[in-house]
Amino acid sequence: MLDVSDLACRRGERLLFSGLSFQVPAETLLHVRGRNGSGKTTLLRALCGLLRADAGSIRWRGETIRDLAEDYNRDLLYFGHLNGIKADLTGLENLRIASTLDQDPADADAIFAALSRIGLEGFEDLPTRMLSQGQKKRVALARLILSKAPLWILDEPFTALDVDAVDLLQQLIAEQVARGGSVILTTHQEVPLTSGAIQRLTLGEASDPVSSESTESETRH
Ligand SMILES: Nc1ncnc2c1ncn2[C@@H]1O[C@H](COP(=O)(O)OP(=O)(O)OP(=O)(O)O)[C@@H](O)[C@H]1O
């Protein structure tokens, strides 16, 4: 469970959000929404520990992410705008390195299978700079297939994907939630789940009311 309490972030002179509190339990997808510049990326980077919040606390399984440090990083898969892909390395090499950083590194067969599932069979040995934008993104997405991290934080993961890849990513997210994981993402795409719960958090709308339903909860901030 990720437990966020009274979080505030300022960028430059602007206070993007304050008093932000929410929890993301296992088997839950938190969909962060808001207009451009409302602070979605800032929030996700703070949740990953890449950016220091101005106030509040972020706890993972009861301990602050600052105290957990590397232990938190091992439980986390972060998918940011740059995708974490090295252009001079092949898809295979990128995934081998990414998976070595994980708690339970994947073997070559698993990496080939992941690249194949993501539609990159035959492209495994090309430097990723020779791939199209969508193919590069697919290499990054193959990390999700290999990941055993219980917490995924995904910033606009659907950008540059074609309909098949969108479909596959929706499946991967649903699988992560169904096996007891947590996912926090920003997207303009709907993400249907097969099981688990969806929470919604909208940034930049402090005056709006909080509403909730039994299967989905929605928070505006
Ligand atoms: N390094 C920085 N220094 C100063 N201000 C910043 C910095 N990074 C972001 N900002 C500002 O913080 C605000 C929120 O940016 P952020 O990227 O978190 O928004 P967002 O909701 O993810 O936007 P988008 O939907 O356009 O991706 C913006 O006004 C942006 O200009």
From TrEMBL:
Ranges where the ABC transporter domain occurs: 2-220
PROSITE patterns: ABC_TRANSPORTER_1, ABC_TRANSPORTER_2
Lineage: superkingdom: Bacteria
Listed GO biological process terms: cytochrome complex assembly
Keyword flag Cell inner membrane: no
GO MF assignments: ATP binding; ATP hydrolysis activity; transmembrane transporter activity
Official protein name in the record: Heme ABC exporter ATP-binding protein CcmA
Residue spans crossing the bilayer: none
Pfam families for the chain: ABC_tran
